[in-house]
Automatic annotation (TrEMBL):
Residues 1-29 form the signal peptide. GO terms for molecular function: lyase activity. Keywords: Lyase, Signal. This is Polysaccharide lyase. It comes from the Bacteria. It comes from Leisingera daeponensis.
Amino acid sequence: MALLKCRPRRRAGFILAVAAGLAVGSTAAASQCSADSRHWRFDDAGEGRGFAHVQLQRGAAVPAEDPLHPGNQVARLTAGPKQKGKVGKADYVHRFQPLQAGSVVLMQARFYFPPGTPLNSLILMDLECASCGLDTNPGVRLYLRRGMLRVDRSKIGIKQAFLPSVPHMMAAGVWHELSWQVTLGAGEQGRSVVRLDGEVVSDARGTTVLTQEVVSRHMDVAVQEQADRFQVGVTANSNPQTVELLLDDVRFCQL
């Protein structure tokens, strides 16, 4: 089991998507982003500026120019193919104070896949825990499968993924605005809402955080039920070929 192992005109649509993300659920609708919310525009040339670090495994992260909007600085992430069981990685990592069950997190970014990029077997966002007591960094992951988004929960010991409820697909050659809101919790107290270009493509309730109950079924280890790390980019490439994407306007917000 895996567990045990501003340019105002261009960004107007993204701002509307942010507002839409805040409207999910009555509690979130009445909340505001916490004071430690983050927004990375990649306007600075510094690699990984403002993030805790850049995670690379046969990968690279470099500044680049937006192919559709000249003058806009973005990040180009390149992740090598899966080799000998190890995936390629190229992503940015944000660390934050541990959040327990009941916390609501909003994660957003814009993605551009160059033509020819396989829109399959890619993980684009992770909400994990690096200090829970397991060295597998358990958490939930936003996964791209045949152009559609799903939430993989295998690293917290849950076999069933949150599948897309609307067949809205990502495509190459255009910018996509991606928003993922997660309520940390066990059972019906947990929730995951995924929006693609402002449209809800997945809204599901279920466990979204590592729980002691699940861990105790397999080992005698005490764990913390929390999250403390956000990753965005190509957090895993399971394809037999190198994958590249562009990234811009990354946001992290605790509601």
